[in-house]
Amino acid sequence: MLRRRLNRLFGRDERKVDSRTIYVGHRPCPTTEALIPPKFCDNRIVSSKYTVWNFLPKNLFEQFRRIANFYFLIIFLVQVIVDTPTSPVTSGLPLFFVITVTAIKQGYEDWLRHKADNEVNKYLVTVLEDGRRARKESEKIKVGDVVEVVEDETFPCDLILLQSSREDETCFVTTASLDGESNHKTHYTVPDTEKNLESLSATIECEQPQPDLYKFVGRMHIYRNDQEPAVRSLGPENLLLKGATLKNTQKIYGVAVYSGMETKMALNYQGKSQKRSAVEKSINAFLLVYLCILVSKALVCTTLKYVWQSRPGQDEPWYNQKTQKEKDTNLYLKMFTDFLSFMVLFNFIIPVSMYVTVEMQKFLGSFFISWDKDFFDPEIQEGALVNTSDLNEELGQVEYVFTDKTGTLTQNNMEFIECCIDGFQYKYADSGTELDGFCVTDGPVSMLQQKAGREKEELFLRALCLCHTVQVKEATGQGDGVGDGVENQVDGVMGLDGEMIHPADLRGFIASSPDEVALVKGAMKYGFKFLGMESKNMRVMNRNNDVETYELLHVLNFDPVRRRMSVIVRTKSGDTMLFCKGADSSIFPRVRQEEVDRIRMHVERNATEGYRTLCVAYKLLSSEEYDQADTGLREAKLALQDREEKLMAVYNQVETGMSLIGATAVEDRLQEEAAETMEALQGAGMKVWVLTGDKMETAKSTCYACRLFQRSTELLELTVRTLVDPERKREERLHELLLDYHKRAVQDAPPIKAGVTRSWSSANQDYGFIIDGATLSLVLNSSPDSNSSCYKSLFLQICQNCTTVLCCRMAPLQKAQIVKMVKNSKGSPITLSIGDGANDVSMILEAHVGIGIKGREGRQAVRNSDYAIPKLKHLKKLLLGHGHLYYVRIAHLVQYFFYKNLCFILPQFLYQFFCGYSQQPLYDAAYLTMYNICFTSMPILANSLLEQHICMEVLMDNAALYRDVAKNAMLRWGPFLYWTLLGVYQGLLFFFGVRFLFSNPALQDNGQVFGNWSYGTIVFTVLVFTVTLKLAMDTRHWTWINHFVIWGSLAFYMFFSFFWGGIIWPFLRQQRLYFVFANMLSSVSAWLIIILLILLSLLPEILLLVLRKPRGPHSRQKKPVVQSGEGETQSPRSSARPLLMRTFSDESNTIL
Amino acid sequence: MAPSYNAKEEDGHQPGATGHGGAGTMTNKKPDNTAFKQQRLPAWQPILTAGTVLPAFFVIGLIFIPIGFILIVYGLTLLIDYTGVDMSSPCYNCSQSYSWNNTQSCTCSVHFSLDQPFESNVFMYYGLSNFYQNHRRYVKSRDDSQLNGDKTSLQYHICTLNRCSKECEPYRSSDKPIAPCGAIANSLFNDTLELYYIDPNGSRTAIPLVKKGIAWWTDKHVKFRNPSGNNNLTVVFQGTSKPVNWRKPVFELDPLDSDNNGFINEDFIVWMRTAALPTFRKLYCIIQKKPNNMTPTLPRGEYILEVTYNYPVRSFDGRKRMILSTISWMGGKNPFLGIAYITVGSVCFCLGLVLLSIHYRYGKRNNSAEISS
Fold first, then answer.
1. Any chain B CB within 8 A of the CB of A1036?
2. Is the pTM of this model over 0.80?
3. How far is A109 from chain B (nearest CA, A)?
4. Could you tell me the fold of the domain covering A385-409+671-746+766-869?
5. Using one digit for the tens of pLDDT, what is the confidence trace for A225-234?
6. What is the dihedral angle through the alpha carbons of A522, A527, A528, A532, rounded to the nearest 10 degrees?
7. Domain A17-23+141-268 has what CATH class?
8. Which residue on chain B is closest to A309 by alpha carbon?
9. Which of B20, B274, B336 sits opposite A1011 (nearest CB)?
10. Any transmembrane segments, and where (chain B) (predicted)?
11. CA–CA separation, A269 vs A278, rounded Å?
12. Do residues A326 and A315 touch, judged by C-beta distance below 8 A?
C-alpha cells in the first residue's frame, strides 16, 4: 500500500519533470535496478463529454451556465415559488422546449462521439507480447507496448518507429485526418535498432505530451549485452502520430510513447477559443436596455400599487377579500413578491425564443455558404467550408482585411523563370510559353556555354538539384521499394531523353514548399535531373545522362527565422560540400562581399518584377570542419532541452563563409481575379493590408498588380532602408519619419478622419504605407524610454488613413500582432484575416473573422479558420454578397424581435393601471406562451433566412452598397430607437384603441357583453396581425416560403384560437377562453376595431416607405450609374481589365 | 441552446474511422444547383410606391367615413345613476342604511323620462364603476370545474383533501363547501330593477323584462352545468352552503323559472364573465319589441325605475347605473368607434391628396433625372 502510494508519488513527480521514460516492451533494462512501471494513461480516446449517468446533470449544468437560460430558469422558479399572475407553464414550457431540444441535439452528437470513440477504442490491433503476436483492442495498449501496424491502417497511438518492412528503414504516412495534408510523408526508423525486437532492450526518454504536431524530442537508449548503452536521438521524423495512416509500407513495428488522451491528436482537438460576433454585443446592449425597461416597469407598477392601495376601500373591498395567509404576510415581503410578480408578468419582453431563433438563423443560414455553387472549385472538387456559424453577420461588417500574399493574392504556383549564375543572367529560351511546356531540347546547353564558366553552371545546377527536401513520388503501382520506383523513372527519363518529356512524368515531385519543386524542375530544364533518394544517397542525372550519387549527410532544415536551408553532402570523390539556399538578406551577410555585388543587381531587378528570388551558395567543407559540424549537429539533435536553440546555433555556425554561386527567380502568378477582388473590397470601404513574409520589392509589385497601389498612390515607406541614416540613430530617424508621415497623411488631409470609412473618397490623395518586420518591431517594442505608445498611435493613425498598408518581412507572430493592434484600436473595427498557410494561422485566429484558403500549403489555415474558401476571388461574394445579406438579415431579426415583444408586453403593462396593479395578465396563458413560439416566430425566421433586400448580383456589382451597413449601421441606437418607438406607438394604440371600444362592452348584436378575456383576445389579434403584416411590409423578397409562412402563421393563429376556445379542456383550471374568439368574430364592432387598429399602426410605416421610395426603387438600377458618374469607383474599374490582362499575359513586364 | 455547429470538432472525433479524411472530404461533393440552395428562388419583389398606395388611401377614406357616420348616428343610450350619493337622490336613504344581514330590503324609485322613443329590442344593463372585477385575486377566485357540474368539488371531504380549487379562498368553504365558491360568485349583483311606464293618464304599467338570452349561448349550455344525477337541485346541492353574501342558495336564484336555477342562472353567468375594466356594464335583461305593433318598444314619456337596493358600493366609492340601449347590427352604441373611423378615414383621404401631389412632382423629376443621366 505504502509502496503503491510512493510509486504514485514518484509518478507524479516524474510527470512534473520535463521528460518521461518508457521501457520498450516493458522489459527492465540493465542499468535501472528495479522496474517501476510508470503510470501512464490508457489508450482510450474519450472525446465524448457525457456518460449515460452524468448526461442529465452535466448537460443541464452546462446549459444553465448560459446567462440567458439561467435568467429564464430564475423566472421559472419565481413563478413556481411565488404566487404569480401567470402559471409556471408559460415560461417553463418554452424553457423546457429549448432545453430539451438542445439536450437532444447534444446528446445525439455525444452519442456519435461515443460511437466514434468506440470504433477507435475497440479496434483490434496487433501487439507483440513476449515474442507472441496478440490481437488486442486498441484501448488496451499501454505505453511501452510494441505495436504492429500494416498498410492502410491508422496508428492506434503515438508510436516511435522501430522497424519497417521497407529496406531503407523508412515508412510513408499520410496525415490527412490530422492536418489535411494528403501528401505522403517519410518517417524513419530509429537507426541501429536490432532486427529482433524481442530481444531489444531499450528505454526511451522523451518530452511530456504536447500538442504541437511537428515537434518531438526524445532520446533512445539501447542496451546491448555488456556494452555502453547506445544513444539515438529521436525527432518528429521518428514519431508516427495517432490518426495518421500508413501508406506504401507493408508493415511497421513501433513502440507506444503517448497513448489515449495524451496523443498529439487528442491534445490538438481540445477546444478553440470561441469568437463572438459584434452583433451579439449589440444584442446584449439592447437586452440591457430591455432589462432596464422591464425592471423599471415592475418598479413603477409596484410603487403605484402601494400608492393606490393606500386609498381607503381599494386594497380590500368587501367583494374581494384577502386570504388569511395574505393578510399575515409581512408588508415588505409582499412588496418584494409583488415586484417579482410584475417581473414575471413582463418578462416576455425578453423572450427565450429570440435566442433560439438567432441560433437557428445562424445555424441554418450558414448552410447557404457551403451550398453556394459559386464557391465550388472544380480543380479541388470542393466548395466553401463553414467551421463556425456564429460569425455569418460579421462578414458584412469587415473594415480591415489582412491578407497574406503568397498563396492568397498569388497562386503559389511556382514557375522557374530565370537564374543568374555568377553575375550572368540565364533566361530560359521562351518563358512566355505554357507552364508545362518543357520543350527541352539541347538549347539551354548552348546558351549556358556562352556565359559563365561551365563549371560554375554545373555547380549551380547541382546545388539546385541537391539543396532541397523534395521527394520523388513513386509510381502508384505495386512496387514496394524505392529502388524500383526510381528505376522505373530513370528508365522513363532515359527513354524519353532528348524528346519532349511528358508532363505526367513531371508531376512526380512532392515537397513542402512549391518553390523547391519549381527549382528542381528549373534545374531539369537545364539538364540536371533529380532522380530521388536511395538510402541516404541522392541521385542526380547530369547533362550527359550520367547518374551521379551524393551521400546526404545532413539537412539543415528551413525555418522562417533563418530564412534559408542547407544540405551537407559527400560526393563520390569524397569531398564534403554544403549547399545553401535562402533569401538574399540571409545569404548576403554570409558570403564574400565582392560576389554579392555582381548578383545583387539581378536579385533586386527580379524582385521588383514580382519574382521570388533565392540565392544559392556553397561551401567546401574540410574534414575537420565537417567533423566539427557533424558532432555539433549530433549533439544538438540529441539534446532534450532547448534543442531548437542549440540546432540553430550550430546551423548559424556552419553556414558561414560560403561563396555565392547565383540566384534564382521564380514567378508566382496572381490568383484569378485577385485585382478585381481587391478593388471590390476597397470599393466597399474596406482597408486592405497585405502582410507577407516576402521581400518588400516582390510584395510591392504584387500590390501594384492587384491594384492595391495605384499610380497615383503616394507611398510612405518605413523600412530598414529608409531608416538608414549615417548621422543619426535609427530611433531618432524613425521618430522623424513617423512625424513626417503623420503630418502628410493625417494632418494635411482633414476630411479623412481616422476610422470613418464613409468619407474615404478618391478626391483626396491616396496613401500607401509600407513597413517591414524589423521596423515594425522597432515601432511596437521600442525601448521603454522612447515612449513606444506614442509611436504606436502615430503608426496606427498613419495606417488608418492609408488606403493600403503593406507589411513585408513579417514573422507569423508579427502578423497576429498587427491584427491585434488594429483590432484593439479606437472604434474596435472588425478585422478579417485571409491566408492559406501555416504561417497565417496566428493571424487567422486573432482576427474577428478568419478565412482560410484551400491552397497548396497544407490545411492548417483551413483547419483554424472560421470559413474556408477555395479561391481568393470567392472572398468578394462571401463578403459583399453573403456577408451583407447575413448582416441585414440578423440585424432585422434582432430589431424585429425586440419590437414585437415590446408591443406585446406594453398593453399588458398598461392594463395594470386599469386592474388595480394586481398583475392581472391581459392575455390568456396560451397566448402568452405561444406568441413567441408559434404565432410570430416562423415568419421572421423565414424572412431572416431568405430575405434579399437587394439581390445578390446587385450587391456584388456595387461594392459601395457594403458601406451602407458598415459600422453596424442597422444595430446602432438610432435604428433601435426607431424600432422601440414603433413598438411603443403600436402598443399604446392597441391598448387604448380597445380600451375606448370597451367603454361600452356590449359589442355583440344581441346585446351581450364582453369580458376581460375578450379584451385581451382583441388586443392580441390586432397584435399578431400587425407584427406579421409589419414583417410582410419589410419583406422585399417574397418566395413561396415567405408566403406560406406569413399567411400560414396567421391562419394557424386563427385556427388555434378557434380550437383553443372550442373545447372545455379538462386539464385547465379555468376555461377562460371558452368561445371567446368565436364570439369576438361574431361581433362587427370587434372586426371594425381590429381593422382600424391594424391600419392605424401600420400607417406611419406605409407613409415612411412611400415617402422614402421616390429614390428607393430607382436606386437599385441607378446606383452603378450614379457611382461612376461621381468618378468614385470609375477609374479603377475601367483600368482593371487591361491591367489584369497584362498581368496574366505578360507578368514579367509589371512595372513599378 | 448553442447549436454552434463545428464541423472541425466532429471530424476530429472520428480519428479512427478509416478512410475518413480531414474536414475537406465532407464537402467533396459539388453543391446542388437547386434554386433554394443557391438562394435563387423565384421571388415576388413588391415595391410600395405612392402610385400603388394612393388608390388604397382613397378607398380607405371613402369606406371609413360613411361607416363612421353610421356608427355615430345610429343607436340610442340612456344612462341613469341610482347610487344615491347625493342627499337629493331617491336612493340616498337605501345607500346609507345598508348592511349585509339586513333582511328587510330597501327599495327606491327613480323617475326619468325618455325624449326619444326606443325602437326594436331595448337592452337594459346595470353598470358599476370603480368595481375591480378584473383584479387578479378576484378574477381567479372561481372554480370552473365546479361550475361545469363537477360533483366532487361539492363534497366536503373531497374538498378538504385539496381536490377542489384553492383559488376560491377565502370563499371556499364555511363549514361546508360553498357552491358556487369564490369571490366572483360571492359578490353577485343582487339589486333588482323594475321598469314602469307612466301613462299620460298617470297609471303605471310594468314593462316586461326578459331574462332569457342575456348570457352567451355556449356559457349557458356548455360551460356552466348543474351537477347531474338529479333533477331536483335542492338534493344536488345538499351538503353545500350558499356564498356568504347571498340571501338565497344557488338553486333558488330564479323563483319564476326553474330552468334558470343553479349554476345555469343567466344573471349568475353574466356576472361570472369578469369585466375588462373597473367601469363596466352587464346585461340585465331584454325588453322585447312588441309583436305586430307599430308602437315603439319604449315610447317617449315618463318612467319609473324601481330598485330593490341590496348592493353596497359606497365603501369603495363605486357607482351603480341603469342603462337602456338599443343595439344595432354592430353592437351597442359606441361614439368612440364612430369618431375614430371618421378621423382615420379623413386622415387617409388627406394623405391620399398629399401623396398625389408628391407622386405627381416626383414622377416628373424622376423622368427628367433618367433622361439627364
1. yes
2. no
3. 8
4. Rossmann fold (3.40.50)
5. 766 777 878 8
6. 90
7. mainly beta
8. B316
9. B274
10. 47-80, 336-358
11. 26
12. no
